[in-house]
Each structure stands twice: as structure tokens, then as C-alpha cells.
Amino acid sequence: MTDLFSFASGNLQVAAPYQPLADRMRPDSIEDILGQEHILGQGKPLRMLLQAGLSGSIILWGPPGCGKTTLARVMARHSDAEFIQLSAVTSGVKDLKAAFDRAAESRRLSGRKTMLFVDEIHRFNKAQQDALLPHIESGLVIFVGATTENPSFEVVSALLSRCQVLVLKPVAASALLTILLRAMDCDEKLQRPPKVLVDEASLERIAMMAAGDARIALNVLETCCEVARQQQPETPVVGPELVAETFQSKMLRYDKGGEEHYNLISALHKSMRGSDPDASLYWLYRMIEGGEDCKFILRRMVRFASEDVGMADPFALTLAVSATQAYEFVGPPEAHLFLAHLAVYLAAAPKSNALYKAEKMVKQAIRNGQEPSVPYHLRNAPTGLMKEMGYGREYRYPHDYKGGFIDENYFPEGMQQTRYYQPTDHGREKQTAERLQKLWPARFK
Known about the structure:
Blueprint: H1 4-8, H2 21-24, H3 37-40, H4 45-51, E1 58-61, H5 68-78, E2 82-87, H6 93-110, E3 114-119, H7 126-130, H8 133-138, E4 142-147, H9 151-154, H10 157-160, E5 164-167, H11 173-186, H12 188-191, E6 197-198, H13 200-209, H14 214-231, E7 237-238, H15 240-247, H16 259-273, H17 277-289, H18 294-309, H19 315-330, H20 336-348, H21 354-368, H22 384-388, H23 429-439
Parallel strand pairs: 1-4, 1-5, 2-3, 3-4, 6-7
Helix pairs in contact: 11-13, 11-14, 13-14, 14-15, 16-17, 17-20, 18-19, 18-20, 19-20
């Protein structure tokens, strides 16, 4: 029995701090790191350097749970370097200074190298990143930064020039399955009685739904095992149903403010441009299921209706605007079908970028040329004085002529009648081209 006096005298036994399975199973050697064979496989330069105890400053770029922190720790161990870990989320210049002082002291007393690992390096501002430069340059620390964001956009060029960038991949499902099986065989807490029975089909489901994130896979396995012990204390079993309940939904690697945001919208745009409705639906729902703002997607699809479909199917723009209005009227999740409707239509529609090219040409002509005044016959004359000055004089009203057309010069005086819009023969734009060829035969040959 515990009382206040035993607590005050320090006799109370304190439980060991909880350590997640993902941390307990963190690999200690290169051989145990799975899923990154493209940089750590036999004969790869990084592996050979680590085996030789050599390491330079690097930036590890990859999705969550792919092993960036683990790799940094293994690098420090192989280099026989003291390991200092900081998080850019909670650390600042003061913490960096303390780390540099510690590294200097270690080098002075023992001659030992120091590896400074900064997780989420993209969260450091320019001044904080610049604070690293002189100490990397002098060799005081071996710097290892980890980021889930594209370093080209998030890391200052001076720091990039001093580091090698290594790209880590999501851990393949087969590698995740091996990691899960290893945890079931080696982890003491999972092995404690009563032993949990987990069939391989359930482990495969965890590996698949973790979407390349080893941390998620291991922690879900641990949760499933603990829940199974609560549900069936004598013979705990983890089956597909328990896995599904624990996951609720498949993990999606998606950052609405990061590179994946732009990668996925680019994939959707290119799939619609390539007239593949199935791929378009896939990328569309990858974004929707990842929590993307549907208004952002719709804005891009409205633009696509003019940029890539254009006059080949003028109705595409009408449908895009209608889908946007329908989304506002109904709201998600029912309104997600409107985006699917629009994506399939845009993908299947005939394509023309003639409007897009015409826009670029005319903007370039205006920016590079002069600004001639509007000819008098094209000016409006709302006042008597303006009429006296010749505004609107000799203007010929097209509706007064046969076919509603009159051959007139609508360009500024002295400017060549330039052809910016060059219609294709795709879809309805072919009809537009034929009409323009009849109206302006000299220009539309």
C-alpha cells in the first residue's frame, strides 16, 4: 500500500516511460534499414562511405516514416560521432549555439566528431539556416537535415551548396511486412503473455494501409495487439476487422501546403490534357480523399476548360462554371460527384490550346511594342464635342451589311493585321476555323 509518507521518502516505484513500438524497433545498423535500397544497397556510394566511417553533411528528403531519423543515427554510429538531435519546430538560434558549444567542447576534450541532426529543417527561417553555415564550413559539425518538403524551395541555396541531398522513398509494402514480422518475433512487449495471434493477411493489410510509413505501420500493430488483449484476455487475436477499425481509413500522404499538393494537381491536369478519364478520376480522388480544398481543384479545372479545351468545345467552360456553382449549392461530400462529372467531361473533350497560345502571343506583342492610339472610327462618341472631333466617324455597322459582316480594319493605324488566334481542326473549333477563313481569307489561309 502506498501512502503520502512513502511517496515523500521516494519509495514510490515509478513506471518506466512509455516507448512506442516504432521507437523500440528502430534499426541500429545499415543492414536492418529496409525500403531504401536505392541509396543503401550493396555497392551504393553512401553504404560504402558509412562502412568506411566517413560522412559528409547531407539533407535527407522523404515522406514521414521512411527512416530519415533512423538513417541519421546509424550514420553517426558508423562515423563514431556524438549525435545531437534538434527539431526545427521547437528549436532556435539559442539551441543551435548550445549545440555548437557542445561540439567544440567535445572536439577539444576528446577529438571526437559531432553530428548535428535537425529534423524538419524546412521550418527554420533564413537566419536560422544561415547560422549553420560557418560551423558546417569549418567542420565543427557534420550536419544532417531532414525534411518532408522539397529542399529546392525550403532550404536556402547557401546551405544546399554545402550538403548532398539524398531522396528517401516511401517504404514499400513488402518491406513494411518484413518490419512487422520482425516486430512480432523480436519485441518483448508484443511477445509477453498472453501472446497475440496475428495472421499474415492482417499484417499485409496494415502494410498496405500504412502507405509507406513504417512508423504508422508499427504503431497500428501495437494498438491492435493491445486492443486484442482487452477484448480477449485469454486468447487475443488480431484479424482484418480489428485492423480496419483501428485504421478507420487508409493513410494518405498528402500535404495541402507542400510539394505533393502541386504534384497531384499537375498529375490531374496532365491526365485530363492526355484525354484519360480514368487516370483523371484517380488523381482527383487522391486529392479529395487527402483533404484538398475542392474549390482549389475547381478553379484549376475552370482554367483548364479554356487553356486545354478552349474553342474545341466551348461548352466545357460553361460546364466548369456550372459545376462550381453546383458544388456551392449542394456542398460536400455529395458535391464531390460534380467534380468527377467535370473531370471526365474535360478529359473526354476534344483539345485545343489555340486560345492559350494566342493569349501569350498578344501579351508579348503588347509588352514589346508601342501603344498606338485607337483609330477614330473605332471610338465611341457619347457627346457632341466628341462627334465634332471625329469620334466614330466612318464607322460601318456590321449588322447593316449582308451576313452581318463587313471587311474592316480593327487594328491601330499603321499596325500590321497580325494573326494571334490560330484555330485547330479539333472538335467544334474546326467550324470556327472554316468561318474565319471565309471572313478573313488573307489572314486565315
